[in-house]
Input
Amino acid sequence: MCRSTEKVQVLQVLQEQQHPGGGVAIIMPFLSSFFRRNPSTARLCIVAMAPIILVLIAGCAVQPAVEPEPRVVRVEVPLQVPCRVTAPAVPAWAADGLRREDSLEVKVRALLAERRQRIGYERELVAAVASCQ
Output
């Protein structure tokens, strides 16, 4: 049978390795010297461990691959949409109809009315631009 110190040494060598299969290079010299010293005990250890290793390998091979269930996932992605806002109509400005002969009072009233028109027209433009953003 295997001696406990030999088992511990093999386990320590396996635990020191960071990647699978890397322990073979370290274990092989140990096993070769072990085979030379105690050939019958070493063979008995390997024969006793072989069924366990085969069962473990077979267990890994038999497990079916678990496939994820297909499911519908809603993903919201922002898209750029062209702005389709009609430009507000340019009003007929009150000061456009003024003549040189009109009195000062008529001119001032027309300019004040045009100022109100421009403020309203600017608000319509701002609203149209804001609806696109």
Observations:
- Residues 1-15 have pLDDT under 50 and may be disordered.
